[in-house]
């Protein structure tokens, strides 16, 4: 899972937190409309902001991850 791919989205603020039992990546896309779809070990994130639409694919760890989107905030939790 790469934080850099999320950080390339215009206006996003993203952070990675490492804990003993796994990592958490959080990205806040602000007022943009954000959707996420998970297909096996890839999260497809679509960000629509006005006339712009950007799609990013994020590889997830093979041991599983939880992917949530809430009010424009994407959270990916791995290893728990």
UniProtKB/TrEMBL annotation:
It comes from the Archaea. Pfam families: DUF7127. InterPro entries: DUF7127. This is Hsp20/alpha crystallin family protein. The lineage of its organism: Archaea, Methanobacteriati, Methanobacteriota, Stenosarchaea group, Halobacteria.
